[in-house]
What we know:
Blueprint: E1 7-11, E2 18-21, E3 30-33, E4 39-40, E5 70-74, H1 113-116, H2 123-139, H3 145-172, H4 180-191, H5 198-210, H6 225-234, H7 243-246, H8 251-254, H9 257-264, H10 268-314, H11 334-340, H12 346-351, H13 367-377
Antiparallel strand pairs: 1-4, 1-5, 2-3
Helix pairs in contact: 2-10, 3-4, 3-5, 3-10, 3-13, 6-10
Amino acid sequence: MKLPFPVICSAVLPNELWQCNQQDESDDLDVQPRTPFVISNVAPNAVLTTPPIQFRQEVPPPRGSFQQMATVTTVSSPEDASIDSTEPIPAQPSLRTSTAKAVPARLEIKLGRAATVGEGLNALTLTIMILFHAGALAALFMFTWQRLAVMAVLYILAINVGIGMCYHRLLTHRGYHTPKWVEYIMAVCATLSLEGGPIFWVSTHRVHHQMSDQEGDPHTPREGAWWAHAGWVLFGSALHDQTEILARYSPDLKRDRFHVWLSKYHWLPLAVSGIVLFAGGWLWGGLKNGIAMVLWGVLLRVTLGLHATWLVNSATHLWGSRRFETRDDSRNNWWVALLTGGEGWHNNHHAHPVSARHGLAWYEIDPNFWGIWLLSKIGLAKKIQVAKFDPENPKPAGL
Length: 399
């Protein structure tokens, strides 16, 4: 079968929310919610050859194997191609040919209570949660203002800078752009929260937006308030280091070697911080102070941060006001916003997910956006997206 020149092979991902356009390596990746959902799968620096391009028909796989999910999209002229040729296009057709081979679809990720509760409790995750909560309670009996200050600083770095500003508004929704070195530093801060690496966190959250409050949503309160808050973390297989499986939901991060490495070793920054706190506390206050610093700076801080993030998944789909009529149960919750730096304005966010600003009224405080604004003032943030809507007739984006 012969096709017009040039040809772009694309992998179509079912029910996908994101279209990722590969730009020049020096540019940031632009990720916007689109419909239909197509992710270009053209390798960078690829060389287009001249026609004719021959395609060999592959034998269909046997039943029970992966379904083929590859389509071929043609464009009418070289100018319409999504990549630039590194060779001049000769006037006459070349005899060189290329064969396209069908690529099996990636493993499907099934999330939500129905898909994961049958696998039973995850023993490792449950053990870690018990240890951290026990350590958090022990920390309360070893209070000093110095330890509280250390915990507060690390909480801001992990939850506000790491989760809110980086994992959520930068990596998941690309609400603004930063230099890569800034993005990487903030991503390391996010791992201090014990919420996994960037590929896991971003992929899970994109699935949440895709299936929000429907079957397949990892943490919808429609399947139980406690499930939405913490139960979804405790059941099923851990996917934190399954970058190949998760790549279908975060192909932009899968192409970044640093994010792949950080996703595999997401536990390392938190472990190093614990060692530093213990050594520093012991050096300036003895063994007891070293232990107390770890209890406050790691166990208590992480426990509080986890529950703050989980409240976004549970409370902001249960209680609060709704400015926008979205297809889910998202709500604006002021007290969750206080705990998370502005992530509680969840109805605003679901209506305008790409907006880097979640607090859309003067009284909706949004410290995470203030941090992004500060980065822009020193030249470290650009292309900041802010939702625009009619206050008299507020509608979600795209309507």
